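Long-time lurker. I teach an intro course on protein structure, and each term I like to show students one example going from raw sequence to a predicted 3D structure in token notation. This year I'd like something fresh instead of my usual example. Would anyone be willing to generate the tokens for the chain below so I can use it in lecture? Attribution to the forum is fine with me.
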Amino acid sequence: MSLFADYQPKDQVTAPLDVANGLTIREAETRDFSRLALIAAEREETTPDVQLKLFEKQLLHQETGQSMILVAEVLGEIGGFGKCAYCKPPAGAPANAAPEGWYLTGVIVAPKFRRRRIGHQLTQARLQWLARRTSKAYYFASAQNRVTIELHRQLGFVEVTRDFSFPNVTFTGGVGILFEMDLRLLRTEDRP
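-- Reply from a regular --
Happy to contribute to a lecture. Here you go:
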């Protein structure tokens, strides 16, 4: 599987999924982790066991209110997930460390559910969740990941810098972009 979805400037959405045709977005539960690990392992080219351990670790942070995993479920089948977490630069971080705050930390949609607006809806749901906790959200991406850059641009994210560091993160192609969004700009009807 390709690391990034193919960029198509005119989004070719086929049969978008929403509540009317069976899409539910909810908080992840432990029972979801084996399926989430399969989706993540395929995307990250690792094993489900490796990914399962990462989800279990994130659950501990979720229980302390420092992270969240949302699941997109389509008529009982998990179609993807999105994560967010509170991040703080470690002691001794370089001057260009990414700022402390809430970050969207990834969205993965299973191949059979791509181009159906699940990634968009998972991102909106995470932003709504974050808007109840903070006034600003961040995310970063490889400069080569045009699909995610365009998705987040449409939702109101703006580029902050390409000169930043984040612990244990490297970028495909070597260039990453840090983005931010003022969550107070969410339309009233988009807020929870």
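Some talking points for your students: The mean pLDDT is 87. The longest strand covers residues 77-87.
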